[in-house]
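Kindly draft a sequence, keeping tokens residue-aligned:
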Amino acid sequence: MFNTLTLAALLAATVGYRPVAGSPDEPASLPEELMAPDGQLAVQDVHPLLTLRNIQQAAPQMPNTAFLEFLKAARVTAATKVLQSFRDTKQLTGTGKRLLQDLPLTEASGAYRDKIIRQGRFVGLALKMRPGMQDIGVRVTAVGTQFTEREPDFQLVVLHSSDMATPVAEIPLPRADRVYFEWSQLTTPIDLASKPNGTWYFGYYEDDLSGQAIRLDQNLQQRPGQCCGNAYVQYDKWSPYVQVLPFSQNPGADDVTYQSNTNWGLNLRLEASCDLTQRLAGQLPAFETAVRQQLAVNLLSLMAYSTRDNGITDKTKALALMELNNRTDGQPGLLTQLARTLKVLDVDISGVSATCLPCAPKPGAVKFKTIG
């Protein structure tokens, strides 16, 4: 559906704090990353009780440096709650649906006679998202190998074209089988959406092998004919989302060469689902008011129910509790105000992929609305 951790971190940075000017009890300054952006409201503007002094006295007792980390975490918590509310109540169906589930690139395996002569290269499979797939998240969940010998020290190297000198991951995958394909589930799947632009490279260094890789004579760049068993069925499932290119890189070379008649003894399993993280990241302003109010409610609740002995005064606790709840004269408290803000939260996004919709979207913007 969307990556809450990624969006919460982005949203947290849009909401900040501001010390009360001229108050001797307030910090003289805050790190720039905690300050409200210029021209925007700070959490202190939601309610005057939300001074940094009151927040610090309500929080568990801690050093000043730890308090700064507390303020950072409070923003992320508020953003996470807003996103969870949005996710749980939105009406748009079909988002988050699973498109691929641990699907191998091919069910075929290479013939033992098709052994690859080692030449000291870096070889493997390159993956690149198809154009227009910003609503689709693709993850590599497992790696298969076919080698002539057991390779207890085998290591999968994952690179991205944005920085070919620094691996994204180096994953030990001891190989206990020989000749036949051996699969290993990845503890942490590689999410291609974490670097949506460019090309991912999943490979190994030939010099690290004691034996040889067994080549599968299948062109992963084009649809197999029906004469090749059911290979075209697998291809038709994953090829709309990702392009797979076998590659090699000679020792000391900067350029990568792509091939069409090998897999370098590798196979990958893919998982794909609708992922609106990138689109929602472009609509952060729509969430800012809700996040600021959620942060205010969280901090006022902290004040109202603080159990710290030498912390906030009973008077401030009572005031915080009163501001959270509706008043007898009918004025809504901050809890009601927050609920109303979340209820009317709309995010307009144009061009959501039809794959992630139950039917083709109407012309114009697609609107995510909460259930009334």
User: Anything to note?
Assistant: The two ends are 21 Å apart (CA to CA). Residues 91-95, 359-365 have pLDDT under 50 and may be disordered. The chain has eight helices and twelve strands.
